[in-house]
């Protein structure tokens, strides 16, 4: 079995590798520190599973996953993130992920998820299943941030964390005018006028870790 493991923290990768090899002794694990490396490796080799973090430099996990969907015979993708299910899980599953786990999950959860993906099944926790059912029901009132695209949502969180437009542009590999356009769209969609309002909303809505 070959696994591509992407996370920008080397100690996190090593810890995950240890957990995986405790169950899959013969697993070959290839590491990547960002999404661009993932795309390069996935073009060159066939993997059985790809594990992606969301918050990676140069190209984040969600954007990486969307590009991976264009590859032929693409391996199932497990998102393993510091972000809670409330923040990114539904977005990740709808974008094509086969599973979503937080980094606070027990090692046993990761092993169960890998077995499911190897068996051709998705891995969704009970709490996420309930959230997905609610999102498809059409009866719940949509929260303002749920109107945002994945990229807009990420920019919202970065603005709320206090980052300047120039810093966001550098981290997402975008131009400053492009980030400013995203900010304007976010303000318009959420009917707000200032970064302070966005920050207050993100904190009060539990969008910040």
Describe the overall structure.
With 209 residues, the chain is of the alpha/beta class. It has helices at 10-23, 35-44, 61-68, 85-94, 107-118, 126-137, 150-160, 165-172, 176-190, 195-204; strands spanning 2-6, 28-32, 49-52, 77-81, 99-102. It has a five-stranded parallel beta sheet, sandwiched between helices. Helix 1 links the parallel strand 1 and strand 2 (28-32). The longest helix has 15 residues, at 176-190. The two termini are 34 Å apart. The model has no long low-confidence stretch (mean pLDDT 87).
Percent range of helical residues = 40-55%
End-to-end separation: 34 Å
Number of helices: 10
Overall geometry: globular
Helix and strand element order: EHEHEHEHEHHHHHH
Class derived from helix and strand content: alpha/beta
In angstroms, what is the radius of gyration?
17 Å
Oligomer: single chain
- Extract low-pLDDT stretches: none
- Approximately what portion of the residues adopt beta-strand conformation? 5-15%
Largest beta sheet, briefly? 5 strands, parallel
Query: Strand arrangement, largest sheet?
Result: 2-1-3-4-5
Number of strands: 5
Average pLDDT works out at 87
How would you summarize the topology of this molecule?
Blueprint: E1 2-6, H1 10-23, E2 28-32, H2 35-44, E3 49-52, H3 61-68, E4 77-81, H4 85-94, E5 99-102, H5 107-118, H6 126-137, H7 150-160, H8 165-172, H9 176-190, H10 195-204
Parallel strand pairs: 1-2, 1-3, 3-4, 4-5
